[in-house]
Amino acid sequence: MSAATTRSRTPDRLCAEAVDLARSAAEEAAAPGVVGEHAGVVSEGDRVVTHFFECKELAYRGWRWAVTVARASRAKVVTLDEVVLLPGPDALLAPEWVPWSERLRPGDMGPGDLLPTDADDLRLEPGYTGVDEPGPNAPVSDEMAELVDAEDAEVTGGTPANLPMAPSRGSIAAIADELGLRRARVLSRYGLHLAADRWEEAFGPKTPMAQAAPATCATCAFLIPIGGSLGQAFGICANEFSPADGHVVSLTYGCGGHSEAAVMPKPLRPAQPVVDETRVDPFPLRPSPDSGSVPATTDEDSAELGHS
To answer: Which of 19, 11, 7 is closest to 80 using CA atoms?
Structure first.
């Protein structure tokens, strides 16, 4: 261990004794009556010491005023370095900041709220590609555009005199807009898997309702099929009495509102006990003389107690 390291861990005597200088600096930076008792001193390096004072601000519970003082080599005058308010070991701190995209939860959006999506959102992918690259034989291809420019003409469905407006060169985006097919982005495979996992957890076969159901939604008449690849595993419940009414449910989900629950076979019950009424079991009205625990005698006076 070097001598410099040893000296840095031991507070400088003159700097450590400059408590009044540190307090006056803290009171000048803070409001009157805010600086509390001296809470210790820490060596920051050679001839550099930080004094701590308690903070009496109600909003800064556990915080401390930190005043750093220093002196030059071989100098006897201590000077002020800086004054800051720092949190202590038991300070009341604000929770760590979390981006809004991570704080948002399902159901947080209200009327008028906007939820923008990032350009690189993994749940989405481009709905079409090659907007400015039509096929080579298309009327709007680059080859046809060069030919039109050379002949000073436009590729239209009629003569320019019969058109309501000046013709313009088309594009795939314009055609998609006209046909109502244009979507800049569509759901990606990753987005489909996220949605499927979310729906499976809410209305899937592992829920308590599905475990107690008489049958699955795949055989229920209230299930509305959906198209696409998700239709192979999900549908929409249309039973107003079901807890999943209006929700996307797994085909393996089920509830007590199954359309065929009333006509399903009832579980088997054990048979009633059979009583044989054709056989008679003899039952004596009086007990036999020799059925007691004490032998019978003719003299009642000499008979032992407990004779039955």
So the answer is: 19
